Amino acid sequence: MESVQTIQFGTAQSLISLASPAEIRDRIADLYVADGNTAEFLSDKQRECAVILPPGESEKTFTSIEKIIARAVELKLDRSSLILGLGGGVICDMTAFAASLYMRGCRVELVPTSLLAMVDASVGGKTGVDYGAFKNMIGTFYPAEQVILCPEYVATLPQKEFLCGLAEAIKTALLGDLEMLELLESEKKTVLERDPSLVKELIVRCVRFKGRIVEEDLKENGVRACLNLGHTFGHALESVTGFSRVSHGEGVAWGIAKAAKAAYSRGDIGSDYHDRIIRLLEGYGYNLSYDISSDDLMEAMGHDKKIRGGQKRFILPSGPGKFTITPLDEEFVRDIVSRP
Ligand code: NAD
Predict the structure, then answer these.
(1) Residue 193's CB: how many other CB atoms inside 10 A?
(2) Going by CA atoms, what residue is nearest to atom 3 of ligand 1?
């Protein structure tokens, strides 16, 4: 395996590496967790001691955690046992959550298989499940001891899921990786064709950026909030459209466009950079114009758990590879979301 980075969380370490599908099939753990779509990446032998959950966000529940724990008990795992989660963000979040609870914490490794999980969900130690309508309401901070990236898996992702992950890569580029920003601008066709070496480069760049941020701020008391660029707006759009019509990535892309508009309206960025961001997002085919009531969006934003002390804080671009974290006046936000 090729090492990418080591992230230090206090005394704990998360090793990030690259591996091939064959190396993943040889990986030894005491229990494997996958979903119906990702179980095919496991070997027959690995599947014999696996929990295979139905795919999808609707399965991100305590019931699934109980299934993982029940299997761990059945296999007589102890605190030194290793649980390996292989799947998208849902499987990664749940496997690490279950591992953090089992006997007050056993070992966990993650093999993210969706682009979103590779560039974001598997790195940084946030685990959890949804509770009713509330996404990620219950969880722990429990970094995986190993995160093994296998960019080859991206080839089989449905296009919608690919674009979900790509929105996070665009976010990362805007936040702090100018070379990646230029790559995304100049190599659009190759990125959309999922050229393996380019996909690998995007993944590694995103992981290195996120690794640096979470190392500084595991529990999101400060700079980690920057990773929410586009998310406060985007989550409101996802929520108002019932978490089905608009995917997470589409919401994030729309949210980044709104953040750019807010930054431009405040004079934080000029029209050149604003237009550059919009061109980039439109170039990848993201819809930046939805006909949604601003009242509904404002209401949905009121429920965003990233709000501190009643004040909405927004991440805004302040120049290529730069950002600010700032509270915005409610009327200003209403104006931004009501514009096309
Ligand atoms: P997901 O896990 O539901 O995967 C999306 C779909 O793609 C699923 O149907 C899955 O089975 C399928 N899939 C995954 N890999 C595949 C592959 N290689 N080939 C074919 N199909 C494949 O969703 P996601 O978008 O990966 O992750 C979203 C989740 O991640 C959300 O629950 C979100 O809260 C979480 N998340 C967590 C963090 C974090 O820091 N912990 C960060 C971002 C997102």
Answers:
(1) 11
(2) 56
CA atoms of 71 and 138, how far apart (whole Å) = 21
The Cα 62–Cα 251 span in angstroms is 26
Give distance in angstroms: CA of 57 to centre of ligand 1: 8
Length of the chain (residues): 340
Which one is catalytic: 107, 171, 205, 228? 228
Q: Does the annotation count 274 as an active-site position?
A: no
Q: Distance (Å, rounded) from C-alpha 335 to C-alpha 294? A: 8
Q: What is the mean pLDDT of the chain?
A: 94
Mean pLDDT of 109-119: 98
Average pLDDT on 63-80 reads 98
Calculate what percentage of the chain has a pLDDT beyond 90.
Answer: 86
Q: How confident is the model at residue 242 (pLDDT cuts 50, 70, 90)?
A: confident
User: Catalytic: 168?
Assistant: yes
Question: Residue 156 CA: which ligand 1 atom is closest?
Answer: 19
Alpha helix ranges (H) inside the chain: 21-25, 44-48, 62-74, 89-101, 115-116, 159-176, 178-186, 188-192, 196-216, 231-240, 248-266, 271-283, 294-302, 330-338
pTM: 0.95
Per the annotation, the verdict on 303 as an active-site residue is no
Structure tokens at 15: 């090793």
**Residues 268-286: tens digit of each pLDDT:** 999 999 999 999 999 999 9
Q: How far apart are CA 276 and CA 173, in angstroms?
A: 13
Is the pLDDT at 153 greater than 80? The verdict is yes
Contacts 24+ apart (CB under 8 A), 199-203: 199/115, 199/151, 199/154, 200/18, 200/151, 202/119, 202/169, 203/115, 203/118, 203/119, 203/149, 203/151
Q: Which atom of ligand 1 is nearest to the CA of 124?
A: 40
3-class DSSP state for residue 132? coil
Q: Is the CB of 126 under 6 A from ligand 1?
A: yes
Least confident of 106-120, 141-155, 241-255: 241-255
